Amino acid sequence: MRFQIIILVLLTCASVAETGLRCGTQDVYEAMLRGETRERPPDGPIFIYTPNFIVHYDTVGIHACTPAYAESIAVYAEYVRALEVGGLGFAAPPPDAGGPDSRYDIYVQDISPWHGYTYWGIYYPNPYPGGRASYFLVTVDMNWEMLLDIVAHEFNHGCQARYSGQYNWFYENTATWMEDFCNEDYNWYILDLNTIPSPLTTPNMDITTTTNNYEYAAAIWAMFLDEYYGFSCMRLIWEEIGQVGGDNTLSAINYVLQNYDSDLKTALGNYAVWRYFTGARADTSAFFKESDLMPTSYVNPAHQHTGPGSGDQGTNYLQGPGGCSFIEFSTTPDYLLLNSLSRNPDAEWLISSIGYNSPTDHDQFMMDTLNCWAVTPSTLYETTVMVPTVTSALSNVAYDYSGDGISYTPGPSQDPEIEVVSILSPQGIINPCSSITPEAVFINNASVSAIDTAWASFYCGTGYCDSRMIDPLGPGQVDTVSFSAWSAMEHNSIDVLCVCGGTYDDDLQNNFLGTSVTVALSDFEILEILSPRGVIAKNDTVVPSARICNNGSSANTVTVTFAVDSYIDTQNLYLEPGSSGNLIFDDWLTPGITGVCSTSCFLTVSDEIPCNDIINGEVLVLYPALITLTGELTESGLLLSWSPRPGTSAYWIYGAENHPWFVPGVNYPWQFRLDVLPPSQSCWESQNGIGDPVLNWIYLVMAVDDTENELARSNRVGEWDFEGYDR
After folding, report:
1. Residue 15: pLDDT band by 50, 70, 90 thresholds?
2. Homologous superfamily of 629-723 in CATH?
3. Of 363, 395, 409, 494, which is the most exposed, with the fewest CB atoms less than 10 Å away?
4. How do the domains of the chain map onto residue ranges?
C-alpha cells in the first residue's frame, strides 16, 4: 500500500499577489561573498513535521500565513523530493547544524521582493569537496501553483548545494527546469522567455548570462540537454560539478557530453538550431516538446534578405558560448553560396545551415567552419537560414556574412553538364566515433566541352560540412573527391547529402544526391525510478518499477537489475529503437523497521554509453497504512469510514489541528488520541474546524489487539479550508 494523505478541500475567496522576483538565492549568495551575513530565522514558533522536512511558520505578525498555506508547503516539499531524489537520483540536501533536528528546514516569512531563496549553511564535503548544507525560505503570499514551482525550485538549490556551494548561472537554469518537471502544466518559464533578454528574444546572448533574470529563461538550455541527451544528463553534470571545489560548470558539461559521443561545442550548435524552431516555427516532434508554447525566436530585420544579401552583426554582437544569430535568405536563385567569417581571430564557433519550408519540412546541416563557406541548393527550400554560433568564452564577437546567389541557365547542348554519380562513403551501418573519409564520384556528361571550374559540398547530419573544388573534367571524365575526415557524433539515422555545381550546367536535377547511414549504437538509459520513491510503509508489499529508454540504433532486449535494502531482482525488457517502456520487478516486502533505504536501478551489463546505465535514489520507510480510511463531508461534519480489520479489539482515533504529519502516541498518555471505538464500529464523525481556514484537522485510525499493541494504522484523511485567489 502507499503511504498517503487524502485531503478534502473547501475554497474561500481572497486575492494573492503574483508579483515579485522569483528567487533571491543569487542576491544573498553575493552578499555572503561580500561578508554580509544573514541571520538564520528563529525556529517556529509553529512547526509542521514531515518525514524529511520541518516547516517553520507563524499565524500572527509580519510573517503570518494560514496553516493551510504552511501545510501545502510541507506536502509540496515531500512531493518534489520524491521526484528529484527518489525518481531522478539527485543527491539529497545534507543535514545542517540548525533547526530542531536533522530534517531539512523551510521557513515561511515575508521576504519581499523575492518569492523564495536558499541559504548555504555549513560545509559538507562528503563526498563532494565543495558541498554545503542549506535551508530555504518561502514568502507568505503566493498562489498554489506558484507555490509548488517555488518549492521545487528552492529544494533543487538545496540539492545543488550538496554538490557545490559555488553558485553561478547554471543553478537557476537547472532549478527553473526542475519547476517544469515537477509542475509541467504551469509553465512559468514561458513568461521568462517573452522578456528581454532571453534565449529567444536576444539569441546573441551567451548561456552564462545573468543580466535581468536571463538565467531563468535559460532553463531551455537545461531542457535541451535533457531532451537531446536524456534525463540522466543533468544529474551527471551536477555530479561532475561536485568533483572539484571551484566553478567548473562548462568543463563539467563538456566532460559529461563526451560520454554521449558529443561535446559542448556540438551541443551549443544544436541548441542554436533548436531555438529557431519555436513559436510559429515550432516542431514539437523534432525539437523542444513545448516549442509551440514558446515565443517565436527573434530574427533581426537587417538579417532578413529577399534573394542574395550580405551584412554583419550590427549591434547584436555574439556574446560568448551559445550566442547566435539567425540570418534568413528567401526567394533565392538556384544555389546560395553562404560565406561567414569571424572578425575575432580567437573566437571558436560553428555555423549551421537550415533549409526551411515549414515547421515540419526542413533540413539542418553544419557549414564548413574551416573554409567558412558552403553551397546550399536553394531550389529545395523557401528559406535558407545561416546560424553562426560562438562556442568559446569570448564576448563581442563580430562577423561578416554573405549569401551570394548562383543562377544557371541552360547553354548550348554541348555545354558542360556535371553530375554527382554516387556517394562511396559513408554507407550503410557505421561504428560510432570511428573516423570516416566521405567520398563522392562526379562526372562531366558533356560530349564536347570540358569543365574548368566546379565545386562540391558534403554534409553529414548536423555536425559536419566540407567543401572542395573538383579537378577539371574533360568530356565524359570522372573524378572521385575525398573530403575531410568525419566521426559520427549522433545516434541512430544520419542524413548525408552531396551537392555539386560548375560555371555552366545544363541539368540541375542531378546536382544533388542524398542517402542515410545508421550508427550501430547500443545504448539503453535508465530514465527514472517510478517505484518506490518518497515515503512508503513498513512491512508492506511494494512493486518496484523503472522507466527505460532505448537510445540505440536497433531493437533489442535489455537486462535490468533493481536493488533496495536486501532485495535484488533482475528483469528483461524488449524495446524498439527510440522507444521507452516501464519495467516491472518482483514484489518487495519492505523492512519491519522505519528509516531510509537506498534504491538502485542499473543495467546488468554496461553498454556503449555507460554513464546513463544507473540511477540511485532513496525512500523513507514509515509506519504502514494497512487500513483504508475515507472521508466524506456531510451536513454535520466530516464522516470517517474504514473497512473492519479481523482480529481487532479496538480502534483508536487520532487527530491534530494544523499538524498533518503528527506522530500518534501508542503508549500512555497516547498523544493525539481522540477516541476509542469498539471493533464493531467502522465510522466516526468530527465537526472540528469545518469551514475554518485557520483550523485544519487531519486524522488517522489505528487498530489494536486486546493488549493494546498496534496491529495496523490507516492513511491520513483531513478537511482543509484554503483561502482562494483571483488569477
Report:
1. very low
2. Immunoglobulins (2.60.40.10)
3. 409
4. 13-186+230-260, 279-406, 418-519, 524-622, 629-723
Residue 649: name the closest of 688, 614, 680, 679 by CA. 679
Q: 466 with 474: CB under 8 angstroms?
A: no
Annotate 422-459 with b (16+ C-beta within 10 A) or e (fewer). ebebbeeebebeeebebbbbbbbbbeebebeebbbbbb
In sequence order, the 6+-apart residues with CB closer than 8 A to the CB of 195 are 201, 212, 213, 217
Domain 418-519, classified CATH 2.60.40.10, yes or no: yes
Cell, residue 392: 568559446
What distance in Å separates the CA atoms of residue 185 and residue 145, rounded to the nearest whole number? 9
Q: How many residues does the chain have?
A: 727
pLDDT value at position 16? Answer: 35
CA distance 500 to 458: 9
pLDDT given for residue 271 in this prediction: 96
Q: Note whether 330 and 317 are within 8 A (CB).
A: no
pTM for this entry: 0.77
Q: What is the distance between the terminal CA atoms of the chain, rounded to a whole angstrom?
A: 37
DSSP string, 577-636: TT-EEEEE---EE--SS-EEEEEEEEESS--SSGGGSEEEEEEEEE----B-EEEEE-SS
Give yes or no for a cis peptide into 432 (omega within 30° of 0).
Answer: no
DSSP 85: I
Identify the architecture of domain 524-622 in CATH: Sandwich (2.60)
pLDDT at 627: 87
Q: Do domains 13-186+230-260 and 629-723 have the same CATH topology?
A: no
Question: Per-residue confidence at 442, pLDDT binned at 50, 70, 90?
Answer: very high
Regarding the domain delimited by 13-186+230-260, which CATH topology (the fold level of the hierarchy) does it fall under? Answer: Neutral Protease; domain 2 (1.10.390)
Task: Please state the rounded mean pLDDT for residues 140-151.
Answer: 90
